[in-house]
Amino acid sequence: MSLHSPSRPVSDPAQDDAGRRSSRSLIWRRFRRHRLAHVSLWVVVAVYLIALFADVIAPRSAGAYDAEHPYVPPQSITLTDPGDGRGPGLYAHGYTQEFDEVSWNRTYTKDPEELHKLGLFVASGHDYRFLGLIETDRKLLAPVDADAPFYLLGSDANGRDIFSRVVHGTRVSLSIGLFGVALSLVIGITLGALAGFFRGVVDTVIQRVTEVFMSLPTLPLWMALAAALPRDWGPLTIYFAITVLLSLIGWTSLSREVRGRVLTLRSEDYVVAARLDGASRFRVIRRHILPSLTSHIIASVTLAVPAMILAETSLSFLGLGLQPPIVSWGVLLQEAQNIRSVITAPWLLIVPSAAVVISTLALNFLGDGLRDAADPYGGAVK
Amino acid sequence: MTLTPTTSTRTSTRTSTRASTVPAPPPRGDAAALLDVRGLSVAFPTDDGVVTAVDRADLLIRPHQVHCLVGESGSGKSQTARAVLGLLDPPGRVSAGQALFRQADGQVIDLTTLRPRGRSLRHIRGGEIGMVFQEPARSLSPMHTVGAQIAEAMRLHRGLDRRQAWEAAVEALQEVRIPRPELRAKSYPFELSGGMRQRAMLAIALAGRPRLLIADEPTTALDVTTQAQILRLLRRIQEEREMAVLFITHDLGVVADIADEVSVMRRGRVVESRDVYELFAEPEHPYTRMLLQATPTPRPGPISERSAVPAGAPGPATLLQVRGLTRRFRLRSGLFGMGRTELQAVDDVDLQLRQGETLALVGESGCGKSTLAKCLLRVEQPTSGSITESLHGTPDGAPDRTPRARPGGLDVATAPESALGDYRRRVRMVFQDPFASLNPRMTVRDILAEPLRHAGPVAQEKLVELLELVGLEACHLDRYPHAFSGGQRQRIGIARAIATDPQVVVADEAVSALDVSVRAQILDLLARLQDERGLSYLFISHDMSTVEHLADRVAVMYLGSLVELAPAAQLFSRPAHPYTETLLSAVPVADPVRQRSREHLPIPGELPDPTQRPTGCPFRTRCRWAEDICAEEAPAMTEVSPGQSAACHFAGEITLRGLAD
Amino acid sequence: MLPYMIRRIGWSLLTVWLISLVCFFIIQAPPGDFVSVLMADAEAEGRRLSSQQVQVLRERYALDAPWYMQYWAWITGIITVGDFGYSFRWNRPATEVILEHLPFTVLLAGGSLLLTWIIAFAIGVFTAVRRYSISDYLFTFLGFIGLSVPNFVLALVFMYIAFRYFGMSVGGLFSPDMVEAEWSPAKAWDLMRHLIVPALIIATAGTAGLIRITRANLSDELAQPYVTAARARGQREGVLLMRYPVRAAMNPFISTVGYAIPSVISGEVIVSTVLSLPTTGPVLLGALRNQDMYLAGSFLLILGVLTVIGTVISDLVLAWADPRVRRQHSGAAS
Prior knowledge:
The complex is a heterotrimer. Chain A is of the alpha+beta class. Chain A is built from 12 helices and 4 strands; from the N terminus they run αααββββααααααααα. In chain A, strands 1-2-3-4 form a 4-stranded antiparallel sheet. Chain A is elongated and about 85 Å long. In chain C, a hairpin with a 4-residue loop joins strand 1 and strand 2. Chain C is globular, with a radius of gyration of 24 Å. Chain C starts with a helix and ends in a 5-residue tail after the last helix. The interface between A and C is large, with 45 and 53 residues.
């Protein structure tokens, strides 16, 4: 249905700047209407920034422990001036510890008197290489007194700072999602485009293989393959192996999507026209088919990342994925498997879960918005 | 695009309407009106403001009368009809006006005040006012049988039980002349042909014995012979039932055929509302005049007045020689796809295209005309046959890098893809769909430069020159296709086609998707380019009126076979093949006097399934001249008069009617 | 229709064969064969397997032959006598262990699938009809949360809440007093009560996707002219909604079953592990952790085959339910 109001001239691109808008800007315009997706975009950017700057943001290293402070509840921060000459600023409350000799239970009560001054970019005394380049020991937000207890989101049984661990885990979990998807993408696009473009036998074979992989229950298969990894591999090797495993099974849906799109596109009039214009087969694919695919591919990829993050988390949770000392969200959640410790310290479950949920939710919304906006020429805006 | 949002509320518009702005409906005894639409406005709130689809439209429909509502796409004609029945798609709504309907008991109600989902409007829908839609294929649910959908209407409006309703449905199918109605009632819509689906839709619309039938472009999606059948059926039922019909169409030929009274709509307004003869004879509104002018009507008069190519004389050089061209498609069927059904899309066609001429290829859907065009450019690979080119010179001054000598006579049908580059610069194509044929992600500059890339960098001047040739401007170069209207896009498509300075342009239904007025402009452009550059056109079309106006020679196809080839003037006045005669008889002439004085041939049957071609002559199942021999032997093309040949056993023996008869 | 059925089943047999190859590969993946693992285990416990025992086992599974002979020995054993190999962890034939746990898995997976359907259908239809309303956004949001929260986190949260606020220890499929009881309506009811929460947790993951598909499909169908046509013949809104567009939009419900099964099975494995339900999940996990590969591979094979069977059935049901699909497969022209 086309509507022309009396006030709307049929079209006069000469007077109209919209005509100069490329598909990219049209997609962006449509995308921005999806408010949730727009907000999610910034959340995703923030999460990736956290991953990138994990070393600065986390007050401690992932493995730093303190046997004196197990199961410390999250500390609260206030903006105040204790009036003891330290001046106004951000202060974290301390706790008084009581240890019950009989039940071996530790109880923490908030101590309003004990305040630890916090500072921005304070020296922590622990050197690290910022972005692998510059040696420094500055931390974004840390107690001025490097030895003061600082557990923003509580601590675990070994007195490790959950906040720091989650921030470090972000790096691992997100990068696995990203690398895994990148690998899936290469496999998926190659096979999908081959199947869609050449059809015939190539298509049939690829379709069969895709179908086999799709009918396998993914998690058990992942589990089996992960379990089959040699026990003597180091954590880093395991990390890469898991990434490869996830991507090997994750490419199927991408490949299907690409194949379907290529099949429709190759019979589009404008692709036929390009052939008649004398464009080579390579040019037809690169210049006329791929550009129309990219937006859809980006959307699919965005939706594949959270699925892969969840997969890694599940595997690690089951003890078949990444192994300590590598810290990922899944590894952190594995430590929350014991219901007793969760009862004692709910933050063990809540904090990593929240990290998983917030980032996958944002990625899902982002992907959803991109998918809706991916085809700016597909009829009216819904 | 600029939009002036209409912010007026419904009531305020209503008062202003009543005040003065709109001329009062024609004083023709409104008491007799069946449906009286007054000052109806339909608004669609969008993100960019309110779009007014219908703007204070007036319409008066009397009982027992066929009222045609004509307009181009986007004129608001469909929205007017939908508004009457409360069927506007959200977010559309009636923003002003009334639709006064006189019910069977004489009571007049304003349909726009009824709740769209309320009981009283539901009773009106189907019970008092029936509606038929444009696309019969999509207007019937694919999940239910045709009979079930008719029976549903029967149960709703006649209070029948399940069994009675089914019987009534079968009866209704009989009434709309569907053969073997008991069997057809059990068919799913996609198992029926387009014509049969539309008959079934009609049966549904008529189930509640409505006093007004709204038919929204009911024949637009159909072939011309099917259209003629449906129009005749509609007229007959309208007379039998003494029903009024509001017939919505963009085709003035159809209007001339069926209308008693006509309203012309433009940009949401009814600009003229008259008796059909008066309107065609002396249109008042400039827009009506323009529409009538842009609509081709066959030129009356004997052959001698028209310029026919003198036959036998050493004519212009042949550029393309097609011999025995065949394209078969294999459809998989049966176990593991091992069974094969063959579809003969193009069957043994001989054809030649001469320098400077316009050869039209006509026929109904599925006759293979588009496949033939695609074979010519090797978008499709011909199964057998040859296409010999005798083009000369080099296109766009590029050095001829192909090592063969000219005139070469390359066999396009078998040449390797790599050897076709030069040929494809000499023979170019304009596509049907102006929206699908331009890459939405490329600017006009890139689109036009694409065919010129082979010869190195493309000069800006060259592109500007191309744009100006087709009536666009240099400032359009950096815009994307979405900024252009359908007509402008088709101009870009034409510019792309002539960019390589070709000798032949294949235009596959190049104007079919365009509105009448735009169509006329594009046809003018094509004619001008032909004059200036000596182009030859292969013009593929299903629209006989357009073809009559611009073709030098016409080739008629039926079920993949060429059945007649003749100079245009001859073909339209003295066709030699019975199918051509049928086709011409079915074409509505956009002149009510001539259209209604023509003798209409009976059009029997339907287009057969292309996979089940009749033996012998493909047309014999629908031919009134058919005899035993037609089933046994496929007729060959025989020359009946200079330049005119037909594939009929009786060609030359029988006298057939032309378009003007 | 019959040729289509035969064709469809033929292809799925090929798929099953490929799956069996993958499973066999997984069985073979750990270094050493299972008899040597068995011997090592026995030695660790201070026992010794007699060389005769070892020989019988080696011959039965053709362990000294090339891999394809081993595969042949394995797969023929499964097909002819249902011998899935030997679980040294349980010290029993794998078949027994599988049969013990599989029914609960099927029950739980089936229950989750059913719940997924019910929830997705209701919400999908509702949101499509009320598009862009507040409730549409709300339900869509909820669906996405379901998609984004890992199954096991939900399970953990559920356990935490049950324990913390209701003092209940959840887990298992029966109340303590029912475990040993004879089958009775009371025991069946007890099973149902224990199944509902895990099933609901598993269902959350698949529901969002299905809601989205339903909503998109139904929105497309609602815009179809046949809906307007049905309205134009005076049909009531509710009746025509269910009879035409909803009916047409139901296809994904049937067609996605095939792909929903793998995800439901995956969910089942992890949720059962957290809630320690006696289904295949924890057993598979245990088998994998202990490199009890025959048991693990067999589970994988069975789960894969179940999925394929589900897919085939869903395709056939689809062809039965939708005249368009039926026609497409009957090989008719045009």
